[in-house]
Structure prediction request, 296 residues.
Amino acid sequence: MPPSGNETDFQTVLQRSQHIVVIAGAGLSAASGIPTFRGAGGMWRSLDATSLATPSAFEANPSLVWQFYHHRRVKALEATPNAAHDLLAKLAIPSFLKKVAPAAKSFHLVTQNVDRLSVRALNALAEQVPPEAKRADRPRMDSIIEMHGKLFDVKCTACDHCEEDLSSPLCPALGAADAALGDYHDAGSKENDIPLAELPHCPVCGALARPGVVWFDEKPLRLDDINSIVYKADLCLVVGTSSTVYPAAGYAYRVKRHNGVVAIFNLEPSQGDNLADFVFLGRCEVELPRALGVSQ
Prediction:
C-alpha cells in the first residue's frame, strides 16, 4: 500500500502515539537559508564531500577545509530558526506535546544538522518561560541530540580539547579569506592557502585545531542514547533528510520494523518513501504545522 498524505489519518495516529522521535536533516534548515546537501542546489551536488568532510581531507588540506567550514559558520550565525525549528522546540514542552499527542510520554529530536538552529530555537523558547512556570510548561532541554556534532565547536587534533567558539571571524586569516568568497562553492573550491600557523589552534596545548563536527568515516555521537530512543519509539517523523547517510538513514526502518509508524516530511520524494506510512511533500515549515494540526 502506498504511503498516505491524509492529515486527518495522521492526526489519529498522533492521538495514540506514546514515544515520538524526529530524525532531522538539512531540509529542516533550508528555509533559514542553509543549503541542503544532496537536493537541488545541495552542497554535495557541486562540491566533493570527500575533499572537504573527511579526516583525510583535513590532513591533506586543512586550509581549504577550514575555509569551507568557516564560511558555513558565518552563514549559520547569520541565519535564524524557522517555523519548523520553532514547532519542534515547542514539542519539547510536555504540556504542549500533550495537546498534539495526548498519549505521549516522550519526545526527542535527533538531528544530523550541525548549524545549532534547533538548539537556538529551544533556548529562545526557554527564555520566554516565566520563573513561576510549572515543570510541564517548561521545555525539556535534553530533548535534542546533535549526532553529527556542532559547527561552532573547535576541537584539538592532539589533546581532544573541544570548546564552543562563536567568534566571527574565528581568526583573522579565515576572516580575510571569507571576505573574498561569494558562496559555499567558492569556500569549498577556491585555492587560498593559509599557513598552518594562521589557522585555529588549541588554547590548551597549541596544536592545530579542527572543526568539531563528525565527518564521513567518523562515528556519530551518542549512538547508545539514540538507539535506546529509537528502540522504544512508536512514531518516527523524518524531517528534511534524503535518508542516504547511515546510521540515521536506518532509524525510520527500525521503528517500522517493530510496528511503529513512520511519517516523512520532505521537499522532494526520497528513497525511503516506500517504507513510510505517511509522506508529506513540501516545505517543512509549512507541512509540519499543517500535518500536526497546529497553527503557528
Observations:
- The first strand starts at residue 19 and ends at 24.
- The chain is about 35% helix and 15% strand.
